[in-house]
Structure formats: structure tokens, C-alpha cells
Amino acid sequence: MSDESTPLPVNHHGDHPGFSGLTGSLCAWIFLLTGRDSGKLAADLTRVGPADRVVDIGCGAGNAVREAARRGARATGVDPSSSMLRVARAVTRRRTAVTWSQGTAEALPAPDGTASVVWALATVHHWRDVDAALVEIHRVLAPGGRLLAVEKQSEPGATGFASHGWTGEQAETFAALCRSTGLIDVHVRGDRAGRREVWAVSAAKP
Q1: DSSP secondary structure code for residue 136 in this structure
Q2: What is the rounded CA–CA span in Å between residue 78 and residue 83?
Q3: What is the DSSP annotation of 89-102?
Q4: Using CA atoms, how far apart are residues 148 and 81, in angstroms rounded to an integer?
Q5: CA 179 to mean position of chain CA atoms
Q6: Spatial distance between the Cα atoms of 162 and 72, rounded to a whole number of angstroms
Q7: DSSP label of 20
Q8: Which residues pair with 151 in a beta bridge?
């Protein structure tokens, strides 16, 4: 049980069993219909364009990956769930600038220094090991590359679905972890993805 002296970690749902099988497929179709605003916000905040190579961690049904491709970028969607990736592939068959890979934040299937942008949209709170994931992101980012993490704003003490996000304190904690990993220009801002109020944490690799 957490209290004011023991704040929730930023990955407070890191023990989530994941989205597999029929449940994963159903969730993927729901995310397909509800996740477009986050992709547009991410693309706007990182100013994605044709020169970019984007890696989307926890891509789900691939809304943000397709948004990056629409803006001319090459994009790779990474997700641990084969069910999610199956749906993502099914709706993006004709996009040659898009690739899909099964993997996790802690073991990204991408070469060193190849990404100009890494996104994590509503996924950090599910990561198993935040420190290891940030080391991986630092490895994958090219010099000057940008990281963006977006999470729904949650109230302290929220439970159930409402707890799948961050309080302001958790957003600041993640920002501090980014700095400790060697990322710079770290900023926390409140924003909106459609009707949802979100926290957006941005950072860059020197």
C-alpha cells in the first residue's frame, strides 16, 4: 500500500499480464478506434518529418506509427503482444515505410543510434524495468534524437482504469530518471490528446 512517503513508481502497472490471445486482439481493435489522438499529439510535439526514423514502444494497433508514416517518416512499431502486431499489420499492409517487431522497452529490436525519435504513448506505466528501458532508448537514439513519453493524467489514489496513467509527481519522477540516464533538455508539460488530459515528458540525447 502506497502513501505520501512511498509514492507509486512510474511503472506501477509493470506486473500487468499483457495483451495476448483473443483479449489482446479485442483490445487492439479498441485501441485502433481510440488511440488516434495520441499519435497526432506525439507527431506534433516531436515535429516528425521525412528525415525521421521513429521507434514506437508499445505500439499496440499502430496508430502513432501510421501517423509518423503519413508525415513522411520511416517508423517501426514495437510491441510484446503478437495479437496487437497482427492487427497493426492487417491495417497497414500497403505502407512500405512501416515495419513491425515483437519486443519490449527493455530489449528494443533496433540497432544502435538509428532512431531520431522514440515514442512511448501510454506504455511506460506497464514497463517491467524503467532503468533498463531508458538505457535501451539511449542506445537506440541517434545523437540529437528525441524521446517523448505520454501518459494520461491520473489523480493520486486513483484505482482501476483511472489509475492507468501518471500523477504529476510520477511525470516528474520519470523526467528525473531520464536525466539520470544521460538525456538532456528534459521537460514535463500538461497537454491534451483529444478529450484526455495527459502528461508529456520530452528529452533528447546529447
Answers
A1: H
A2: 12
A3: HHT-TT-TTEEEEE
A4: 21
A5: 18
A6: 34
A7: -
A8: 199
How close are the terminal C-alpha atoms of the chain, in Å? 38
> 16-39 pLDDT, tens per residue?
666 656 565 556 556 666 667 999
H helix runs in 17-62, sequence order: 21-34, 36-46
Q: How many Å apart are CA 18 and CA 136, to the nearest integer?
A: 20
Q: pLDDT digit string (tens) for 35-93? A: 679 999 999 999 999 999 999 999 998 999 999 999 999 999 999 998 889 888 988 87
Range list of β-strands (E), 34-128:
53-57, 74-79, 98-102, 115-121
Half-sphere exposure (Cβ direction) of 140: Cα atoms closer than 13 Å: 27
Cα–Cα distance for residue pair 71/3, rounded to 1 Å: 44
Report DSSP state, residue 139: H
Greatest CA span in the chain, whole angstroms?
A: 51
Compute CA 58 distance to the chain's CA centroid, rounded to the nearest angstrom.
6
The partner residues of 56 in beta bridges, in order of sequence, read 77, 119
Instruction: Look up residue 197 and give its DSSP letter.
Output: E
Query: What CA–CA distance (Å, rounded) separates 81 from 102?
Result: 7
Q: In angstroms, rounded to a whole number, what is the distance separating the alpha carbons of residues 177 and 154?
A: 19
Burial environment of residue 187 by CB neighbours within 10 A (0 to 12, 13 to 18, 19 or more): exposed
